[in-house]
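Incident review: delayed structure delivery

Summary: a single-chain prediction request sat in the queue longer than the usual turnaround. Root cause was a stuck worker, restarted by the on-call engineer. No data loss occurred. The affected request and its eventual output are reproduced below so the record is complete for anyone auditing the incident later.

Affected input:
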Amino acid sequence: MLHAADYRTPEPFTGQRVVVVGAGNSAVQIAAEVAGRALVTLAARHPVRFARRDTLGRDLHWWLTRTGLDTLPIGRFLRTPPTQLVIDDGRCRAAVSAGRPDWRPLFTGISETKVIWADGSVEKADAILLATGYRPDLGYLAPLGALDVSGRPRHREGVSLTHLGLVYVGLEWQRSLSSNSLRGVGRDAVRAARRVAAHLTPFGEAGPRTGRAD
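Output delivered after worker restart:
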């Protein structure tokens, strides 16, 4: 069992039965590449959803910035973050559509070198590659009552709803689509810093307390 971070080239998997776990960019790109040399299945909780890398000659990120969708502050209204899209130029979509790799619902178990699929069938796998990404590990905040029932921080646009002066940055959909990316974390960090500065500024002193955190 390997992690996507350990993947370098498809050659070591030549002729093998490979299961790639995940439905994000890394999982799909690796699976499509390895599928040129091996029998590959993408195993995930949901089918792969694609988005075009470019439209009318412009990169998707250009359109997100130009239209304002990248910074639209709708994070507070999302109970469950939307499924991640795979940004693709068409090649990975074509590969998945052709069944190389194919997609299956996530397996229910692993027994030695065998995978137990959701339909009860059992299949030998030479390699299982985890490309599931990362999630914040914030369990240490649970005793403080700072997390909701799903384990997510209780906050509004990064500002804690449980502890005065506590702020977060880098959370998925903290404020907008780009909050957990390099494109957006800086903007959210500036807002958070202003909130902290306002909290620390004594009453009666001029400072960030009178400014806006937009």
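Verification: The chain has two domains: 2-49+84-130, 139-201.
Action items: add queue-age alerting; document worker restart procedure.
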